[in-house]
């Protein structure tokens, strides 16, 4: 008994002895509205299957399948996470129906009854005809559990033509192109669908599927459907079409009240789809076992990577929900590449590096070093077989490139932070040089930007190489110019590391070409000097505040006020051109001043990635306290746990990783080993770096939640007093380390050390 008492006391004093289910802090409906477009369905980390509801509300694009309003058109196996542009996937779907179904392939929908429910690994929805739909998933298979009304015939429709539609009218809507479905004697079904288009304007692609039911249907049949003839039953048990106008599908009818279905998918064949479902959800697998295994995987491989002593439920929900949503894509499709055979890992559903390169991939390296190395190897392998690195990729097809060739930045960031392992960096460098020296063919032509390729590479490279700037002959000229400069700095970093000194000097010089777009005479709100459009005859008139640009405009999705800060590798030069440190402080302050531009809001726009770095740039003019103040204001004002909890598209977790870095108290500078220091939210936070290494961040004197007393009074790095407002990868990430902050109510001027590096200046 005494021994038992001691154990009881230990358990009470150390509640962490009991395993914590961190998935309980993940709110899957956070950011599903207000343009956040989060995917609330079921998935494993980087899983190929993302099983969730598809809602149809004509006129509204359902980017992740989910909408708060509308009717269910299906529950499909494939989705993206948090994207804009146009919906992708929504393929391999089932839809439950009740009673007689005379015309199954007539684009049926079922109304929703009440709010959907979700937790990590589990999704539940109800239809107005009395069906409860529950979903679970593994990496490459999914599980449906239907509870039909007692005494009524329950049906499951498999409509191969089902995809997520787009109502934007920009020619980006996906199209069904044909497919087949066959029902076998044992009742299972196999088939494939062919589709095209979507945001990346992909050509035809096929996905294969294989489905099983645990109950014997009272009837099943395949159908072909046309607008003219409706749904025609196929007595052979097989339906096939090579025409977009001829739909194919199957209908399975049951008298059982509860029916479970297991479905696998493959990019290769129906045989592989069947193998995936048999391997991952074999016959007899309990639905709850799949749910529990998914929770366990998220806890083990993702959520437990970051732990804190904080007990504030709102902050914990923000922390773990953000970690969750940054791990849904890219998709680990290793062994499932239909385009070539390779022993290298294969990841796709990159949506997009234009969104992710500023801070997301840096956090992925910190949290998932093994998966991140695989992603780097995959990028290089895509170049080996397709000729260019992707800036974005889905359905195994590159596109679209919004600005520069920003996979260059990803490779450089990995290189300078020591990613080696099985990465072939000589090949990686060749891929970078391809982007830097060879303009991609303009095929296919993008009608929204017909001047040059949006599929991959740097379409405006002819001007960049010949002139050192980009003329209005090319769309998005200013955006491309400042991003090409960053891309060239990335090539410089890898060239320098590989001892290619002549190349390194060339690309370092080219990384300064953003300066050729700098017009010192351009003014706005009393400030002089902005990056502007330029022709061979000189600078062109522009409004630096105009921020409504899109594919055909000089600035893409941001203004000159934003893009003028883009060249962080050359910050010392930028500060001088803007008029010195105090002018830079005033200019940054203006961006965060409500109504400064004459509108009700700020010039700073928290909804889009070109602004991500800006709150932290005060560090470069020795006002770290203002970096803390402005970034915290943005984090606390625009992020919350509600359905509208993101300021803009999640963009594959880009928004969430910006918030996570704010919680940690650091901000990465892509392509360099530099991390800018601001201040952490929590009294204690520990990051598992892998290999037995940890970064432990502590803070005394604050409120423990990042709301007040946020200013740094002093800092120790690895136990030593620290006066710089920045540190490097090698200081605390390479081998682990500690950051000990003392926080207080007011700025202290603790940061008296040298300024952050400006390697191109």
UniProtKB/TrEMBL annotation:
Gene3D superfamilies: 2.70.98.10, alpha-1,2-mannosidase, alpha-1,2-mannosidases domains, GH92 mannosidase domain
Signal sequence annotation: 1-19
Keyword Transit peptide part of the UniProt annotation: no
InterPro entries reported for this sequence: 6-hairpin_glycosidase_sf, GH-type_carb-bd, GH92_a_mannosidase_put, GH92_N, Glyco_hydro_92, PNGase
Domain Glycosyl hydrolase family 92 N-terminal: 25-266
Biological process (GO), any one: glycoprotein catabolic process
Keywords from the named record: Signal
Domain Glycosyl hydrolase family, chain residue ranges per copy: 272-744
Pfam families: Glyco_hydro_92, Glyco_hydro_92N
A GO-annotated cellular component: cytosol
Gene Ontology MF terms: carbohydrate binding; peptide-N4-(N-acetyl-beta-glucosaminyl)asparagine amidase activity
Domain of life according to the entry: Eukaryota
NCBIfam families associated with the record: aman2_put
Protein name as it appears in the record: Alpha-1,2-mannosidase family protein
Protein source organism: Aspergillus fumigatus
Organism taxonomic ancestry: Eukaryota, Fungi, Dikarya, Ascomycota, Pezizomycotina
């Amino acid at each position: 008994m005494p021994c038992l008492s001691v154990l009881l006391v230990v358990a009470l004093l150390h509640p962490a002895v009991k395993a914590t289910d961190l998935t309980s802090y993940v709110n899957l409906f956070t950011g599903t509205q207000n343009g956040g477009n989060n995917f609330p369905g079921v998935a494993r980390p980087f899983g190929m299957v993302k099983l969730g509801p598809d809602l149809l509300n004509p006129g509204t694009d359902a980017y992740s399948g989910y909408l708060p309003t509308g009717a269910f058109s299906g529950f499909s196996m494939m989705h993206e996470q948090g994207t804009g542009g146009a919906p992708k996937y929504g393929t391999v779907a089932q839809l439950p129906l009740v009673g007689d179904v005379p015309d199954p392939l007539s684009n049926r929908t079922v109304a929703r009854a009440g709010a959907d429910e979700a937790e990590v690994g589990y999704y539940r929805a109800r239809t107005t005809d009395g069906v409860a739909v529950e979903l679970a998933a593994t990496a490459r298979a999914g599980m449906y559990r239907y509870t039909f009304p007692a005494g009524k015939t329950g049906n499951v429709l498999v409509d191969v033509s089902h995809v997520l539609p787009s109502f934007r009218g920009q020619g980006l809507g996906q199209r069904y192109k044909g497919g087949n479905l066959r029902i076998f004697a044992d009742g299972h079904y196999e088939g494939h669908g062919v589709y095209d288009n979507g945001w990346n304007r992909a050509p035809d692609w096929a996905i294969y599927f294989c489905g099983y039911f645990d109950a014997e249907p009272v009837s099943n049949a395949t159908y072909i459907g046309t607008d003219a003839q409706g749904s025609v039953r196929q007595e052979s048990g097989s339906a096939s079409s090579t025409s977009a106008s001829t739909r194919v599908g199957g209908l399975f009818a049951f008298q059982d009240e509860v029916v479970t279905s297991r479905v696998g998918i493959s990019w290769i064949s129906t045989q592989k789809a069947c193998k995936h479902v048999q391997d991952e959800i074999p016959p007899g697998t309990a639905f709850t076992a799949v749910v529990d295994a998914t929770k366990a995987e998220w806890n083990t491989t993702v959520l437990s990577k970051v732990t804190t002593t904080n007990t504030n439920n709102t902050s914990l929900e923000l922390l773990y929900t953000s970690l969750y949503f940054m791990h849904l894509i890219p998709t680990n499709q290793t062994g499932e590449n239909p385009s070539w055979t390779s022993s290298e890992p294969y990841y796709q559903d990159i949506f997009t590096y234009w969104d992710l390169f500023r801070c997301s991939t840096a956090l992925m390296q910190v949290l998932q070093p093994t998966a991140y190395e695989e992603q780097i190897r995959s990028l290089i392998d895509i170049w080996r077989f397709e000729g260019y690195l992707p800036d974005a990729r889905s359905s195994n097809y590159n596109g679209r490139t919004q600005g520069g060739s920003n996979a260059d930045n990803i490779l450089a960031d990995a290189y300078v932070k020591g990613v080696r392992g099985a990465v072939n960096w000589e090949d990686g460098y060749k891929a970078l040089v391809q982007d830097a020296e060879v303009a991609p063919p303009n095929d296919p032509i993008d009608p929204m930007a017909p001047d040059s390729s949006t599929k991959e590479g740097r379409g405006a490279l002819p001007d960049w190489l010949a002139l050192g700037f980009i003329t209005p002959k090319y769309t998005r000229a200013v955006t491309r110019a400042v991003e090409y400069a960053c891309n060239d700095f990335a090539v410089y970093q890898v060239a320098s590391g590989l001892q290619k000194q002549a190349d390194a000097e060339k690309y370092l010089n080219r990384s300064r070409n953003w300066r050729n777009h700098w017009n010192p005479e351009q003014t706005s709100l009393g400030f002089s000097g902005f990056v502007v459009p330029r022709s061979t005859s000189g600078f062109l008139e522009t409004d630096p505040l105009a921020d409504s640009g899109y594919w055909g405009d000089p600035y893409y999705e941001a203004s000159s006020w934003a893009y003028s800060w883009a060249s962080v590798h050359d910050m010392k030069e930028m500060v001088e051109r803007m008029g010195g440190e105090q002018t830079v402080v005033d200019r940054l302050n203006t961006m965060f001043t409500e109504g400064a531009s004459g509108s009700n809001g700020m010039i700073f726009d928290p909804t889009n990635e070109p602004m991500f770095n800006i709150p932290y740039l005060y560090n470069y003019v020795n006002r770290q306290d203002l970096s803390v103040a402005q970034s915290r204001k943005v984090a606390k004002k625009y992020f919350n746990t509600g359905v509208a909890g993101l300021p803009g598209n999640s963009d594959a977790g880009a928004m969430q990783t910006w918030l996570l870095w704010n919680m940690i108290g650091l901000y990465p500078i892509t392509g360099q080993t530099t991390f800018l220091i601001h201040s952490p939210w929590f009294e204690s936070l520990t990051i598992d770096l892998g290999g037995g290494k940890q970064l432990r961040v502590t803070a005394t004197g604050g409120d423990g939640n990042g709301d007040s007393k946020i200013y740094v009074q002093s800092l120790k790095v690895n136990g030593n007093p620290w006066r710089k407002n920045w540190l490097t990868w090698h200081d605390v990430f390479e081998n682990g380390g500690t950051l000990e902050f003392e926080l207080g109510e007011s700025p202290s001027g603790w940061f008296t050390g040298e300024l952050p590096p400006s390697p191109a200046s």
